[in-house]
Amino acid sequence: MIYDCHSHTEFSSDSEMKAEDAIEAARKLGIGLIFTEHYDFDYKESKHYKEMDFLFDAKKYWESYEALRGEALLLGVEVGLTPGSIEANRKFINEVPFDQVIGSIHAIDKLDIYYPEYYEGKKKEQAYGHYLETMADMVKANPYIDVLGHIDYISRYSPYDDKEIGYKEYHDLVDLVLMNVLDTGTVMEMNTRRLDSKAVAESLLMIYARYKELGGQYVTIGSDAHKAENVGMNFKMAQDMVEFIGLKPVHFRERKIEYSK
Ligand SMILES: [Zn+2]
Ligand SMILES: [Zn+2]
């Protein structure tokens, strides 16, 4: 079974998706699903903390959803990677037996990259360079994560005309991220959110082909759905890309890698 390895229900501050609706959407598509709720320990230092805290109670989460867990549904978490949250994340992921742990960069220097503040006064080269550099460092500092989430997260929100992480321009830093991913036994996620554009797909293809070239074998595919209608979005494109490159789609159950077929 192919799994949508990245989704957020109402345990995530920014999602109101009901577990039942998400499960039903996945069932209709004939795919499995992994819930990966937001845990951004450091977010309390953000000026937007009052609106959303991006924290949740792991035990409550487990109690609420454990009965739903099975072949078609696994329970994971998406931890935000920042220098100040390394130990907190390590502790949190052991509070309950999560199936899969995604590590993601959502904030840099305490600035949420969803908001314009991170980009203010920065040229694209600086904003993207610092983002990739931070990602490489954080992967190395958090070797316990299973999956590196959405390498192209910054491209969703940055204000530049060309939002892509062009492999040609950023090859040194992209390579550093990918090498640290491989050194730490982490798996790259292919996030499908932006794959409805051919230009985006082509640009990301270069990065994932390079991952394969450097020795990468596995990839998780995840929609990052916060609404039931987005579960499994653009999966056909992602599966075609993964097959074309020669990577194997996987998911994690009880923190162990499994082939998704
Ligand atoms: Zn994320
Ligand atoms: Zn997410």
Automatic annotation (TrEMBL):
<dbReference type="GO" id="GO:0004401">
    <property type="term" value="F:histidinol-phosphatase activity"/>
</dbReference>
<protein>
    <recommendedName>
        <fullName>Histidinol-phosphatase</fullName>
        <ecNumber>3.1.3.15</ecNumber>
    </recommendedName>
</protein>
<keyword id="KW-0368">Histidine biosynthesis</keyword>
<keyword id="KW-0378">Hydrolase</keyword>
<dbReference type="GO" id="GO:0000105">
    <property type="term" value="P:L-histidine biosynthetic process"/>
</dbReference>
<dbReference type="Pfam" id="PF02811">
    <property type="entry name" value="PHP"/>
</dbReference>
<dbReference type="InterPro" id="IPR010140">
    <property type="entry name" value="Histidinol_P_phosphatase_HisJ"/>
</dbReference>
<comment type="similarity">
    <text>Belongs to the PHP hydrolase family. HisK subfamily.</text>
</comment>
<feature type="domain" description="PHP">
    <location>
        <begin position="4"/>
        <end position="192"/>
    </location>
</feature>
<dbReference type="InterPro" id="IPR016195">
    <property type="entry name" value="Pol/histidinol_Pase-like"/>
</dbReference>
<dbReference type="InterPro" id="IPR004013">
    <property type="entry name" value="PHP_dom"/>
</dbReference>
<keyword id="KW-0028">Amino-acid biosynthesis</keyword>
<comment type="pathway">
    <text>Amino-acid biosynthesis; L-histidine biosynthesis; L-histidine from 5-phospho-alpha-D-ribose 1-diphosphate: step 8/9.</text>
</comment>
<dbReference type="GO" id="GO:0005737">
    <property type="term" value="C:cytoplasm"/>
</dbReference>
